[in-house]
Amino acid sequence: MKKLLLASSAAVALTAAPVAAQAAEMSVGGWSTIGVWSGGKIGTDTVGLSVRTDSELTFHISETLDDGMTVGAKWDLESTGGADEAYVYAESGFGKVIIGSDDSAAAQLAVGAGHTTVPDQGAGPSSGGNTVAGDNGDEDKIVYISPDLGGAQVGISYAPDASAENTGGLAAKNKSEITLGANWSGDFDGISVTAGLGYANDKGTDLTETSIGVKVSGFAPGMTASFSHRTGEVGTAKTKDNTTGLGFQAVLDDITVSARYRTSEVGATKPKRTELAASMDLSDNANVGVAIRTDDDGTTSATVIGVAMGMWY
Fold it and tell me: What is the pLDDT of residue 4?
């Protein structure tokens, strides 16, 4: 709630700015999903029918000043309560500066291994970690993203100790997080290539991680393939925390077929996840899909099948 009030106050201030070249613009959007999942098993236990819903409402306000700089604010309200992301920003030829609750610079610029369009059913054993560095949450931070220079961008972010801040205390230097990110995109005879690098050092959890990812599209009509690998060490014992992901997506008119495979090494365990999904567009703002997902952490496994519907507005 504190984040939302701060963002709201900043937005009001922006709309009242006397140096504005034009009136502030405000937009409201969001999405809603619902999924119904079959039984399946987790080890020897049978999972009953599961229904999962999720929604988010997004408010965005922006204004262009006389000098060409754009200032704005954005906040997302989740159906579970509270704000997911809430921040203010300024953007011009120098790049973009974000202050508030948002993804880290590494997470924004790194390239992950794709995703399926079916919501998580919320059950199953551990599936391992993220495939990009710095993708650990939307705690309060300061982010800088450079302008696009020949298809390349770099960024840096700093997050103080969020737990100390949220309780009204001072941020602890020994629990801060710094991330770095870089991204490049280019076209080669109709084939689009995007590559990303990420680095994160989280002193609060003693986590140091790096990631590299590549996404290629246009090699065949509607086809996209992606790869990412994250290497990390966590804790004073420097326990391994590595994840590799592969993704594939094919868009054929109103039908989208996607697949993703992810394997991790977390200490002595090696969890894996396989996802297959197909969805059909019902309109420009709605689709329905079916998916099958298998998780295996080396001790227990789970396979579930579900149908889901998504709407965007």
Answer: 39
Confidence tier at 9 by pLDDT (50, 70, 90): very low
- Dist CA 266 CA 129 (whole Å): 8
Which one, of 77, 76, 73, lies nearest residue 88 by Cα?
73
Band of pLDDT at residue 161, cut at 50, 70 and 90: low
Supply the mean pLDDT for the chain. 81
Q: Give domain limits for the chain.
A: 2-19+37-312
Is the distance from CB of 271 to CB of 297 less than 8 angstroms?
yes
Alpha-carbon dihedral sign for residues 93, 149, 184, 243: negative
274: helix, strand or coil: strand
Q: Which fold would CATH assign to domain 2-19+37-312?
A: Porin (2.40.160)
Q: How far is 89 from 81, CA to CA, in rounded Å?
A: 24
Q: Count CA atoms within 13 Å of residue 161 on its CB side.
A: 15
* pLDDT at res. 44: 59
